[in-house]
Design a protein that fits this description.
globular; 39% helix; 422 residues; alpha+beta; 7-stranded antiparallel beta sheet
Length: 422
């Protein structure tokens, strides 16, 4: 029985009562898979060091602020062949530490692909979550989660792949018990830090012990805290079902993007109340955009389009939230160069008008000049066909200069929806 066959899915759904109950499934990940996952985790931190991106990472390290702790990780990437234990020791010596990295799939296609392959049979049966999937890495020996007892947002269900080497303990408290009976107790102990009152809260919790190779599932609605007394690493997959308010907030953000081309921190200075409107509009006008395909539409027609684009964006990144990081891949565009789709990702495309096409690639929204050849070209790519630059130039050559065609191909390659075949 493997993690993504029908028998395992039946077993998983039975044990968690169709995603409604927390459960630990013992010894589900074999040793070879644990080592493969650990290598991928190290590769994530290697790539993170190259990109020098920190906003999705939190590090808890005694006597260090977030910026300094993050620089340690960026300046000490894992070496090839290094183990989790050796890299952690090299980074942090004997200090206790904790790393939480959200949207880890951004830094490794291998991580996203393997998790997608494990979850796709489940989504075929239950449907895709309209809020998408996200992957968080937990690494360290930091003891109790620095957040203390907390509850995840509504609709966030989590599956935890524990890779060891140390164990992890999870303590869960039903939300009604916490909110109706325990919150007043904890607030009286230490103000708003009552969520850290472990001695008082843990006796009211249910304990789940998770060891290397185990899978832990937790639906939303539980206050919980983890305890990692010894070094361990885990991959957690968030299955996000959005609330109506979540969708409203998403549409609000997208609507603002359609109205404003950019933003800035320019101060709007104090002035005469009679000139308020004129003064503020003078600051805003330079950054107004009103995209052509939205400019003349009433709001009631714009919102369905924005919602459609939201799902096109998710679909283009195989329903994983957050966009991929583009790369600058340099290659010589010789005619016999072959390329194909980077599975499982698809190009999501629609014609806007006679001149422009709307294209989503790995979560990125792009407007590109429309060509009738896009329809068969994208269809062939999405179906997994291997194509050549020569055939692509023939498809687009009647209207596009070769340079435009190669620019289009480079965009697909740099956003990692297309792979070159050496």
């Amino acid at each position: 029985m493997t993690l993504n066959d029908d028998k395992w899915i039946d077993f998983f759904l039975s044990r968690c009562q169709n995603l409604t109950k927390p459960v630990v499934l013992k010894e589900q990940i074999d040793k070879s898979a644990i080592l493969k996952f650990q290598d991928i985790v190290l590769d994530v931190f290697r790539n993170l060091s190259t990109i020098q991106q920190t906003k999705r990472m939190r590090i808890y390290l005694e006597d260090y602020g977030q910026t300094d702790a993050k620089m340690i990780v960026h300046n000490t990437p894992p070496n090839k062949g290094e183990t989790i234990e050796r890299w952690s020791e090299r980074c942090f010596s004997n200090n206790r530490f904790g790393i939480i990295l959200n949207s880890a799939q951004n830094y490794s296609d291998d991580l996203l692909k393997i998790i997608e392959s494990l979850f796709s049979p489940l989504t075929e049966r239950l449907g895709v979550p309209y809020g998408g999937f996200d992957i968080t890495l937990f690494l360290g020996n930091y003891g109790f989660t620095p957040l203390g007892f907390h509850k995840d947002p509504i609709g966030h269900k989590v599956t935890h792949f524990h890779l060891g080497p140390g164990k992890k303990e999870m303590y869960l408290i039903d939300s009604s018990l916490y909110e109706n009976e325990l919150r007043n107790i904890t607030l009286s102990i230490d103000g708003f830090k009552g969520c850290m009152a472990f001695n008082e809260l843990i006796p009211h919790s249910i304990k789940y012990e998770i060891e290397a190779g185990d899978i832990f599932y937790m639906p939303n609605g539980y206050y919980h805290v983890g305890n990692s007394p010894d070094l361990s690493v885990a991959i957690t997959i968030w299955h996000i079902e959005p609330t109506v308010r979540d969708i409203q907030n998403e549409l609000n953000l997208k609507l603002i993007d359609k109205i404003f081309s950019s933003t800035n921190e320019n101060l709007i200075k104090s002035g005469n109340p009679e000139n308020y409107f004129e003064q503020v509009m003078n600051e805003i006008k330079p950054i107004l955009s009103y995209e052509d395909n939205y400019a003349d539409l009433p709001l009631k027609e714009i919102l369905p389009l924005l919602l459609r684009e939201h799902f096109m964006e998710l679909e283009s990144n195989s329903f994983f939230i957050s966009k991929s990081y583009p790369k600058n891949i340099v290659f010589e565009p010789v005619k016999d160069q072959l390329f194909c789709r980077n599975e499982p990702f698809k190009i999501v495309f629609e014609k806007l008008d006679q001149e422009n096409a709307l294209i989503f690639i790995r979560g990125h929204r792009k407007i590109f000049p429309y060509h009738i050849g896009m329809v068969p070209f994208i269809k062939d790519l999405n179906e997994g066909k291997t194509l050549s630059i020569e055939s692509m130039l023939e498809t687009f050559g009647d209207e596009w200069e070769d340079e435009v065609t190669i620019t289009f191909l480079k965009m697909l390659i740099n956003y990692r929806v297309v792979n070159l075949i050496n």
